[in-house]
Structure prediction request, 628 residues.
Amino acid sequence: MDNIVEITPKAQEQIKKIFETEKAGLNQGLRLGVIGGGCSGLSYKIEISDPKDKDNVLTFDTVKVLIDPKSAIYLKGIVLDFQDGLNGKGFVFNNPNAKNTCGCGESFSI
Amino acid sequence: MNINQVRFSGAKMELSWSVLEIHGADATQFLHGQTTINIKKINSNEARLGAVVSLNGKLEGYFAVIKRHEYFLLVLPSELEINVLNRFQKYIVMEDVEIKKTELNPKIILGPSSKKYLNLQNFIPLQIFGETGALTFDNVLPDLPTMTNDILTELCVLSGFPRLGQEIELDMLFSETILSKIAYEPDKGCFLGQETVSKIENFRGPAYYPVLMIINEELDIANPQVFNCEQRKGGTVRSSFKRQGQTYLYCYLFRDFRIDQSSLLIEIEGRIISAVVHYYPYLKNDDLSKVLELMSLASTEYTQNNNTDKAKEYLLQAIEIKSDHADAYEALGVLLGHEGNFIGAIELMDQLEKIDPKSVMAHTNKSLYLMKLGKITEAEDEKNKATIKSFSYYGDEAKTKQRIAEEKTKLEEENKRRESMFQQVLEIDAEDEMALFGMAEILYNREQYNEAIEKLSYVLKVNPKYSVAYLLLGKCFEKNKNRVEAMEIYQKGIKIAAAKGDMMPANEMQSRLSQINI
Prediction:
């Protein structure tokens, strides 16, 4: 089964660190979603969450990613990366479907 | 035809069932005293499933009871007609009750299509074969696909609804059949056999009870078939079907093994096979559950199979079933947008806004599509509306957070009150398991997991069969990220709880075990 989204090794490491510091439960995962607003229209949402019925559950090493069916339609094909360092933006979503992305990299249109 | 066609659209079926007519001044009272349901609460032209049982609690018949203005109709499997007639005749003494056979031929429309006919006089709503349905005695049925026996088997095995001679037989203990759930109203008062039914319910529950078991390979299993589990009789397979690499079994499973979502090794037809247990109903037939299934199917078709057309088909079916499901409109609009059908996508966002006036995405998506069409001013306008609505959304979120904080404060006040009470009990009896458990719960609520573990370990030393203590202990281990310890304690606790008949903690432990056992 192809993954709906991809998560780079660097992003996976960062997520594991966040799960430790946020004391996420053993059954919790990283929920990816889309919300309205932002300079280009749609924005990505990341949060630690319990699994819900009908979630797509993707496993990357020990990292569990949760995407509800509706959000999967928006997020198909995105790559979640992490850019650290002085000029790093933190979590960055690379969306091959996005026609426009604003300078901050957080907001996109399709 | 496949099962999804019935569940998400509809099918028609001629029931090979008979119809009895019961009338007389005492008909209501008589039926109320004889059957397992509250006859007095059935409205005119309403149907409900009911049953009759013997003094020993054994099944003597089941049927759909329909109330007409002046009389009742009983729609039942033809093989039960004589049985039920004789049973009722035996108990008519001085009552003004007359029962006669009719020549009526019942037919049914199953699935969401049935709703279109319920406004018509000759159709009566009825839940049957695990589906919503419309029952009629008319000769002419709508132009719908006809249900096949194979699909009916799938529906019954997946929903738990029993067919006479297949999933259910006469003389079975009523409490051991699914009718004790779907054709029984415990608060209806006395009926023949009620004492036995109540005794079984209040003691440890039935020894055997229907569950669905799923095996990850396709097998031909002769039905009925007894199987073993842990070197003792595990239960009986009554019916089955196979599909897409799996076999689905309608089984009567022994109490000790009856944990939802647990894996069992069963010995059947000389083989040891792994099966997963699921409580009924496995398939949910309410509109919202079906719509959520269709959303999930649509998402899979689009993201996994790149089949946009199939995805759209599923979403349109979802909207047909539940015309106010906002997510279906949103998802369908997004798919149209991906295809470049911006006008169609905008129409869907307009409909989304009507259904969910608070929807931010309706305006955000509409803004994007208007932009694509070159309508910049209108696009900016929609974007502004999205921004304003998102403030309202964040305002609601802030209120929710405040409410959660207030609830936390109330919980701590309650914890303090209970703590004082438990401490007083423990001063009298330091080994009082309820007080110890209560203290452990308070410590868990305060996130003092190590202290809670200490208390719970002591509770289990005092009483190794205290089922809920295993559950709470497992939760503490989970909070401490001790996966292995959590799994071990759940596995131990499930066996103990199941043997005691404490199914709620048993099922919750199984659910948590499944979630953390990756």
